[in-house]
Design brief:
heterodimer; A: mainly alpha; Rna Polymerase Sigma Factor, Chain: A; Arc Repressor Mutant, subunit A; globular; B: 4-stranded antiparallel beta sheet; 8 strands; about 40% helix; about 20% strand; elongated
């Protein structure tokens, strides 16, 4: 959970704050976890990722927004590099590699970069509808690849 | 810009990635609540994103973990778990986290952290009976045998078994053949009349050996008890005995689980 929070939030001290909130939320809500609705891991990482995204977006409503827009051009390479460097699970790396470039970019920019589908579309210069479709296709392909691999 | 209804459906991937702007998020969630197929798809996509999270897994700083443990011990859990959180999960996590081990590779450290987090999570979930304890998670606990318990939890061959108890409730066992030991916890056992207690046994070719009485439950859970001297062919069993404990079982087991590898 810390890894995903840190990847999205980037600022280490903020990442720690978010993680602390997430762990307490997991602790508080554990009794309400429903096994039938997915794995515990998915439940916990979903909470972690969403809180990280909330933090990044809240911050972005401030003046940070413009600064961030200026950085957009380098965003994908930067995100890809960070992810590449930390991808210690060979299987996930390989499965990401099996996606088309657009699927992979859409998925990683959104998940690790914390961008909305609209921002991803603007970044990649493709229509929003295409990005949405690629995100869904990409995740399905990723799921099938990871599942087939188990 | 607002999305029209038919377009909502195409948001499934973006939603699983948390890439839907806030304004559309609530609308998609309402859609999800009405559309069973979408909810199922969403669960599947979330399993994929969980793997993306796993791919960048990292250890949080130790101080942070300690802060969280301290805070968790003070934080009331949501119903159905009621009352203050018991202290033992916090102690356990501490113990697991601090277990003296050679400064191994990151994989070992991460495993230890995973155990600590799994313990927090399972302690809470087991208390409510919300989790069907069948997966190969690792769980554990504390007391003066803290160290021995942590050893079992940290054993490379540790496996978790769970079983429903006939009288009601469930037992969770983390066992290490290497350490010839197991750690035993329960949740939701029916309260016994005064003068009676639950007693844990190892039973097998070497006879019936008592592993002690279970402590009084806190919040529906009994804190972990360690049973050592596990031998091939043993089963673990639970009986109701006089509160002082018995030398040999005097009632038929309400739980009997074979531990054959």
């Amino acid at each position: 959970m810390f890894g995903v929070v840190r990847t999205v939030v980037r600022d280490p001290s903020q990442a720690e704050e978010v993680l602390q909130e997430v762990l307490l939320e997991v602790w508080r809500g554990a009794s309400r976890f429903k096994p039938g609705r997915g794995s515990a891991l998915a439940w916990m990482t979903t909470i972690a990722h969403r809180r990280a995204i909330d933090r990044v977006r809240a911050e972005n409503r401030s003046a940070e927004r413009q600064l961030r827009a200026a950085r957009h051009a380098v965003a994908y390479d930067e995100v890809a590099e960070t992810v590449e460097a930390r991808l210690d699970r060979e299987r996930v790396r390989r499965c990401l590699g099996s996606l088309t470039r657009l699927q992979c970019e859409s998925v990683t920019l959104a998940y690790y970069g914390g961008y909305t589908f609209r921002e991803v579309a603007a970044l990649l210069g493709v229509p929003e509808g295409t990005v949405k479709t690629r995100m869904r296709d990409g995740l399905i392909r990723l799921r099938d690849c990871l599942g087939a691999d188990q | 810009m607002r999305l029209r209804r038919p377009e909502l459906h195409t948001l499934a991937g973006a939603y699983a990635l948390d890439a839907v702007p806030e304004a559309d998020r609530a609308r998609f969630e309402r859609h999800l609540a009405r559309c069973r197929a979408c909810a199922r798809e969403q669960r599947e996509l979330r399993e994929a994103t969980a793997r993306l999270a796993g791919a960048v897994a990292a250890d949080p700083p130790a101080e942070l973990v300690e802060r969280v443990i301290a805070a968790a011990a003070q934080t009331r859990q949501l119903p159905p778990a009621t009352g203050p959180a018991p202290a033992w999960p916090a102690r356990l996590i501490h113990q697991v986290w601090n277990a003296r081990r050679p400064p191994g590779p990151w994989r070992a450290r991460r495993r230890r952290l995973a155990l600590a987090l799994a313990a927090v999570f399972l302690a809470a979930a087991a208390a409510s009976g919300a989790i069907a304890l069948t997966a190969e998670h690792n769980l554990g606990a504390a007391q003066q045998s803290d160290h021995a318990i942590a050893e079992v939890l940290n054993a490379p061959d540790a496996v978790m078994l769970t079983s429903r108890v006939k009288a009601g409730g469930a037992a969770t066992i983390v066992m290490s053949h290497r350490d010839h030991a197991l750690v035993f916890t329960t949740a939701g056992l029916p309260p016994l009349p005064g003068g009676r207690g639950y007693q844990l046994w190892l039973m097998g070719p070497h006879g019936d050996r008592s592993a002690g009485l279970l402590p009084a439950p806190h919040n529906g859970m009994t804190s972990p008890v360690i049973a050592t001297g596990l031998a091939a062919g043993d089963s673990v069993a639970l009986t109701v005995e006089p509160a002082a404990g018995s030398g040999h079982p005097t009632s038929s087991p309400i739980l009997m689980l074979s531990l054959t590898a």
